[in-house]
Design a protein that fits this description.
Layout: H1 4-15, H2 17-26, H3 29-38, H4 42-53, H5 61-67, H6 73-86, H7 91-100, H8 104-124, E1 132-136, H9 145-161, E2 166-168, H10 175-183, E3 189-202, E4 205-216, E5 222-233, H11 240-265
Parallel strand pairs: 1-2, 1-3
Antiparallel strand pairs: 3-4, 4-5
Helix pairs in contact: 1-6, 2-4, 3-4, 3-5, 4-6, 5-6, 6-8, 7-8, 7-9, 9-11
Length: 266
């Protein structure tokens, strides 16, 4: 029974596209947003999220962001799916939700939505206003495994996304694709970021270091590194929540250090 909500979400996401499109035509974004926010039946909220994803308007991003905090796993998954279908922004709220989402299935849907949004940005975001083209190369960290690596990348991306002129390369972009895009935009500088997190734990103390190696993209030449460390005292050695909080803060600040360095080069 525990898996039933996700099964329902999967069926709705796969088979509900036509119905969602019909709903999107029949109802305004405001009406769908109100249903997603207030309707007592989670199935109606789920359909509203999917219908918002079919509206092809950026006005649907904000209500879908709110839907990521719904109490029902099915609705959160549908909100993420809707944002991925739109591919018109909202990476910041998806990344915030990813950092605290407990459902493995919803996390997968959020990650897929982030990839789709990133691909959309990489394909169309380069233009006169773009200054930097950012790709991530994720390495194994000393601490926390995949979860910590996801937190590190999300925190760096969130910090970078706060500033104009930074465009993220699509996940899985080939060297040939990157070179072709940058040839068309010679004013843009490409960087590959390779973050790594390490921790030092002693009795009652935790030190987290987030280091980002910098490379020319897509050339691969090393350009140096930036890092930030944060520590905290009076915590349990096995307090995972505190560790994750420090990872996010340290990596966010390391992302800020990178941006300062990039601005100097520009």
């Amino acid at each position: 029974m525990k898996a039933w909500p996700w099964l329902l979400a999967g069926l709705i996401v796969v088979f509900g596209a036509t119905l969602a499109t019909t709903d999107a035509r029949a109802e305004s974004v405001a009406e769908l947003a109100e249903k997603l926010r207030t309707h007592e039946d989670f199935r109606v909220r789920t359909q509203a999220a999917l219908a918002l994803g079919a509206t092809a308007t950026k006005k649907a991003v904000a209500p879908l962001c709110d839907g990521l905090d719904d109490e029902k796993e099915t609705v959160r998954a549908a909100a993420a799916a809707g944002m991925g279908k739109l591919a018109l922004g909202g990476s910041d709220c998806l990344e915030r939700r990813l950092r605290k989402e407990s459902s493995k299935n919803v996390r997968k849907m959020i990650q897929k939505a982030l990839r789709l949004i990133s691909e959309g940005a990489g394909a169309s975001g380069l233009g006169p206003g773009a200054k930097f083209y950012i790709a991530f190369e994720v390495v194994k960290s000393d601490a926390g495994g995949a979860r910590v690596r996801q937190l590190a990348v999300a925190a760096i991306r969130s910090r970078i996304a706060e500033e104009k002129g930074f465009v993220f390369a699509p996940v899985g972009e080939s060297t040939k694709q990157a070179k072709k895009r940058l040839r068309k935009n010679p004013h843009v500088v490409g960087y590959a970021l390779k973050p790594k997190v390490s921790t030092t734990k002693t009795t009652g103390e935790l030190l987290v270091t987030c280091a980002i190696e910098l490379f020319d993209y897509p050339g691969g030449d090393g350009l140096g590194a930036v890092s930030r460390s944060l520590g905290k005292s009076g915590i349990d050695e096995d307090d995972e929540a505190e560790e994750h909080d420090l990872v996010e803060k340290a990596c966010g600040r390391a992302g800020g250090e990178f941006m300062s360095l990039a601005a100097q080069v520009d």
